[in-house]
Amino acid sequence: MRSGLVRTVVALGAAASFAFTASAPAAVPVTSIDKDCFAPQVRLDPKVVNGVATNPAWLARDAANQYCATLRIRDQAASPAYGTGNLTLGAQLYGQKAQEQLADGPGHLHGGLTTLVPGSQSADAFRSVEAWEKLTGGTVTRVTFTSSDGARLHGHLWMPPKSLPKPRAGYPGVVITDGSVQAYEQLYYWAAQGLAQYGYQVLTYDVQGQGESDLLPADCSPSSCQGVPYQQNYNFYQGAEDSLSWFDSKANPGFASLDRSELGIAGHSLGAAAVSWVGQCDTRVKTLVAWDDLQPIDITKCAANVTVPKAFRATKLDTPALATTNDYEFNVQPASAPPNPHGGTNGGGGAGDSGYLSLVKAGVDSQLVSFRNGTHLTYSYIPLVLPSNQLSERFAFYYTLAWFDQYLRHGANPYTPVPAMTRLTTLGGYDASADRSSRGVVSFGTGTYDASAGNQPYLVKGISIPDSLSFYYFSQYRLTDPRTRAVRTCLDMVAHCPKKQPATP
What we know:
The protein is α/β, with parallel strands linked by helices. The protein has a single domain, classed as Rossmann fold. Helix content is about 25%, strand content about 15%. It has 12 helices and 16 strands. It has helices at about 1-15, 55-70, 70-75, 80-105, 130-135, 190-195, 235-245, 270-280, 300-305, 355-360, 390-410, 420-425, and strands at about 50, 50-55, 140-145, 150-160, 170-175, 200-205, 260-270, 285-290, 320-325, 365-370, 435, 440, 445-450, 455, 475-480, 485-490. A 10-stranded mixed sheet has the order 3-4-6-5-7-8-9-10-15-16, sandwiched between helices. It has a two-stranded antiparallel sheet with strand order 1-2. The protein has a two-stranded antiparallel sheet with strand order 11-12. A hairpin with a 6-residue loop joins strand 15 and strand 16. Helix 7 (about 235-245) packs across helix 8. It starts with a helix and ends in a 15-residue tail after the last strand.
């Protein structure tokens, strides 16, 4: 039944148009979130015959999972507030970006072919820079810096609201590297805004060839043109390194209020691969978050992948890393038989759990969280045409915040009542950290529409953590308790950490 709804929703999304409004969030009506998508986990025997699952209950659960993986499209299409807003903000941003290109001149041709897609500029139309500044009192500054090959890169520096007292040593800092093709910095404002509201200084930027950054390096000839075509590893790997170096320099307008001893990085897709390398190869990075997904790193091959200043070159794996992944990549498709629970090309991340396991083997703290009915687009808010579920963006923020609190704030955050280690390891329900900080709004972006109150952002407090995790791919961790220094391990969070890892989650 629900597999037919998948086709209907996708067809609707491909034909619809969209837009922007911003307002303070109200409570989400209980009916706005499809609770069936996070129903209690039930272990089912697929009853495989000739390589194909035959159990009707197993097949029905899989069909429901596919339907749930598309609900963000349905909610966008059903929201007049989103439709009006996306058109309004989209037109505003098109004009703004055209002016920025004109100001940069013909010698700095911007990349970002995907920014020409109608509506793409506004992405999550409720998360404009201006709306966030007005709602929170935080400040955002457009910044420009030069990459190693001379390309001019553009981004934004996000400073915490003035109502948050600055720590004596300064704010911990996070640099976010965007993903490839469909993903540019606006699509990661959900993370930048949320982290800044919790007292982090954050940099978002476009890598060379994407968004508003230069398509070409400073010196480009037919025989030598570094980073072109624009979807090369170089653009992301070296971009992650160059942005970190700029962030950690006096050119950063927030330098005086930055705690340079507490720097983290995060990235999505090809950006996740980039931060996997930079996070292990550059000693300035104290921790990293890879949104789909973490790559295994050979520390002896750092120089072949990224150029790190000599003073900061690492010689061993020792950077704690959080990896997140999902049931699906770009396409939501049936699992006609149980997939490899360690992940692979169709779900569970392209690298599977190999990046996570490589750090565990090296004795480095790591965690892998696989989201139920999530897709690769969970982390990049694409309007209407590419599928994602309702809540995994909020789940991802919950774990991202807890991870940075654990490794950049030593387990505590003055604006959250629950210790980071507890948030990372609890198998109860989500707390309110992904919904609201103690000082203001966190979740005011993507959500559902209520005729009497407009857009209603998704909130996740109270949702069962094991029930939000994949029943196809493992979620697991190896963490050091900051109080006792004892190592805590979990082989399967869905099964509440059994002593032996089961055949499937």
